[in-house]
Amino acid sequence: MVVMALLSAAYLLIVFWLVFPYKTLVVHNDPVPLISKEGKVYRGSIAGFNMKWTKYTSAGAKISRMLIYKESKELVIIYSGASAVPPGEHDKIIVVPIPPWVPPGEAVLRTTYEYRVNPIRIVPVSWESQEFEIVE
After folding, report:
1. 131: which DSSP letter?
2. Which residues contact 122 (CB under 8 A, 6 or more apart)?
3. How far apart (Å, rounded) are the C-alpha atoms in residues 58 and 74?
4. What's the whole-model pTM score?
5. Strands 25-27 and 88-97
6. CA distance 50 to 5
7. Pairing of strands 132-135, 40-42
8. Which residue in 18, 100, 25, 115 sits closest to 64, CA to CA?
9. Among residues 16, 51, 41, 56, which one has the least CA distance to residue 108?
10. Taking a C-beta distance cutoff of 8 angstroms, is the pair 76, 67 a contact?
11. Residue 31, preceding peptide bond in cis (omega within 30° of 0)
12. Which of the residue ranges 18-22, 40-44, 62-66, 94-98 would you say has the lowest mean pLDDT?
């Protein structure tokens, strides 16, 4: 009887962890605008994006950034790391180094945050920038 009760409780906990609608991060201006008058970024330079978001959790996130090229649909991963922004509303310029080895062309920046909200679930949140041109 006790074993059945423990198994039932464990089952309910696992179901709860899998279906609970966790709210981690909401981006308010997707696509996020590039801070550049001409919409161009030079290879090996810094790109700035004016991002507005609300973070609802104190958990840190794994972050990955990639460039997605318009014509070739090529994906180029340019960053992988961690983020530890405190909860609350934020309106900041996100600074992203554009490596000198990326190919030129029309692209968007996709950033994905992965939040581990419990031992068996990761909640991903992604945003994209407006389209911009990478030039030599």
Report:
1. P
2. 114, 115, 116
3. 34
4. 0.88
5. unpaired
6. 52
7. parallel
8. 115
9. 41
10. yes
11. yes
12. 18-22
SS3 of 31-100 = CECECCCCCEEECCCEEEEEEEEEECCCCCEEEEEEEEECCCCCEEEEEEEEECCCCEEEEEEEEEECCC
- List the Cα angle 65/70/47 in 5-degree steps: 45
Is the pLDDT at 20 greater than 90? The verdict is no
For 12, list phi and psi in degrees, rounded to 5: -65, -40
- pLDDT value of position 65: 97
In angstroms, what CA-CA distances link 94 with 6, 8, 64, 121?
Answer: 47, 46, 14, 27
Residue 8: helix, strand or coil by DSSP?
helix
**Where residue 91 falls among pLDDT bands split at 50, 70, 90?**
very high
Query: How far is the C-alpha of 67 from the C-alpha of 129, rounded, in Å?
Result: 10
CB 106 within 8 A of CB 69: yes
Residues 7, 59: Cα–Cα separation, whole Å: 29
Comparing C-alpha atoms, which of 102, 91, 127, 125 is closest to residue 45?
102
